[in-house]
Amino acid sequence: MSNDSSIQSVQSEDRIFPPPTDFAARMGTVHVPDMEAxxxxxxxxxxxxxxxxxxxxxxxxxxxxxxxxLEWNLPDAxxxxxxxxxxxxxxxxxxxxxxYGHELAILWEGEPVAGHGPEIRRITYSELRDDVARCxxxxxxLGVKKGDVVTxxxxxxxxxxxxxxxxxxxxxxxxxxxxxxxxxxIVDRVHDAxxxxxxxxxxxxxxxxxxxxxxxxxxACEQLPGVxxxxxxxxTNNEVAMHAGRDVWWHDVVPAQPNTRACxxxxxxxxxxxxxxxxxxxxxxxxxHTTGGYMVFTAATARWTFNLVPExxxxxxxxxxxxxxxxxxxxxxxxxxxxxxxxxxxxAPNFPAEDRFWAIIARHNVTHFYTAPTAIRSxxxxxxxxxxxxxxxxxRVLGTVGEPINPEAWMWYxxxxxxxxxxxxxxxxxxxxxxxxxxxxxxxxPTTPGSCTMPMFGIDAAVVDDAGNEQPANxxxxxxxxxxxxxxxxxxxxxxxxxIETYWSRVPGMYLAGDSARRDARGYFWIMGRIDDVLNxxxxxxxxxxxxxxxxxxxxxxxxxxxxxxxxxxxxxITAFCVLHPDHENDASDAMRKxxxxxxxxxxxxxxxxxxIRFTTALPKTRSGKIMRRLLRDVAAGKEITQDTTTLDDxxxxxxxxxxxxx
Length: 663
Ligand code: PRX
What we know:
The structure is a single chain. The protein is α/β, with parallel strands linked by helices. It has 20 helices and 30 strands. Residues 277, 325-326, 401-404, 426-431, 452, 513-515, 527, 530, 536, 541 line the site of adenosine-5'-monophosphate-propyl ester.
């Protein structure tokens, strides 16, 4: 990796970084001060989950207390059974009622538009309460009722957080679609969720250009007769078509509402949201999270993992988009109940310059910074001079999420950004787990570059074989969770079978994460990669099947096989092996490659754009017709083919594959 720091490129995996000795002095309070405290708490949380989580949940507001902490009928968990609560109340109204209404809840930095500095908005809890109540009433005026799924397809503007909370306020589950996805992704998700109302923006700023969100919604709605209303926030001022009877402007309906709509008490197991994520087969699945357990788990894990202390004037900055689970859990729901301001930004890390994040950190005295390894690898490539020009001394805790971090990136982050004084929490978790499942705790856990270390409280994580037996130290196996936890998914929308098959079938009685892992002699976890056909591209999950069906959907290709390949920045890049349609057989050119890449980018979104396209006249298949993906992965990675190819149907295919060059 090219960078101009002095960090060695090969790091020993045995390095241990204990929490800095002055961590307690710098943080004021440390919730989990050492490994002994961690062990005692973790052991209790596994031995007595009901006692443990009952105490944690008692710190939240409940309209009616639960009668039982946990009801567990594998694979169905109910947490805080019989209790009623509201996630918006616990995030916002409660702070106002407790006298903190004047405190900062959300700090937002818009993308700088030419000639201006960044637009900054500071929203207090009182203001947020009023804005959310108005938005909630506006949604009701559009016909939204408790239990109706509302789709949010917006840029990173404060109104996205407001709309999320407004849905929670009235008990209407939200389904947020990442603004980087294209029309087809909207069609699939809105259709699957049965959503009749979409909230969007005219456009979103990204590197000085406008992402045409409303136009994408319009295109999607051509295939969505069930969409009755589209609420449109004006952000970029681009020309948009407004469909009479269906589309309404945010500024026409939201500000005019009263701010009196109270939070709706909902059952602890009332659906809070659906969030679509990729699996190994078929279309993305709608992961269901419910109210009480998710709320308690995200807020408690945020507090422990980041050592949040509201009295210490902390400022927390997570660079994720609310369209992903990281934004749901650790920009909105996990943060606001902790009363530590959450910083949202709009745009891109390298616009207007490659020091955007460091400028934000210095400008707002950010204490906590949470980003993805893929971003860190980009920062390294952009050069040390960018962070070096800013004062980053306010930082206390650094976090990473989304993919394994390579030790070189970890060391750079530690030294260049953290000034060698900030613990790094490498947080392992998933859309399905709701919150962190394996992570260091900054005041307690000695860290090692590349390891996500030890399980979160209440998480009985293990590495097992197919029969569920724990693997010996340093032996790879399946990552599982053996007991229910409050933030766990409650199902896959409309597909009970897929829920059971994906998570609860391979290892009897245990939740299967879909990752392989090993534990070292100290008990530290090392994530080794997905065991299914899911790629982790720049920390984002993508199913190979989605990209393949998009390529075939172009009609230029009759068959495609998509595999991951090592990529310096993205972690995993996408290689697509394509068999061209007979009408285009002679078009195996760079122009065709570009055409296909652009097709996928427009169809699914830029994150799914293949990095390399290789044309072939046939895909390697077994005699029973299964595509030999492992072989393709080796070809894509440029490896020697060492595996047994005796089951390959046509050995000639292999020679042709190697001859087919990429881009
Ligand atoms: O493979 C693991 C990887 O990301 C997957 C979950 O993806 P998603 O549901 O999109 O959520 C990403 C943000 C929570 C996991 O199955 N993953 C996530 N965090 C880590 C990780 N792999 C290694 N280390 C991590 N810290």
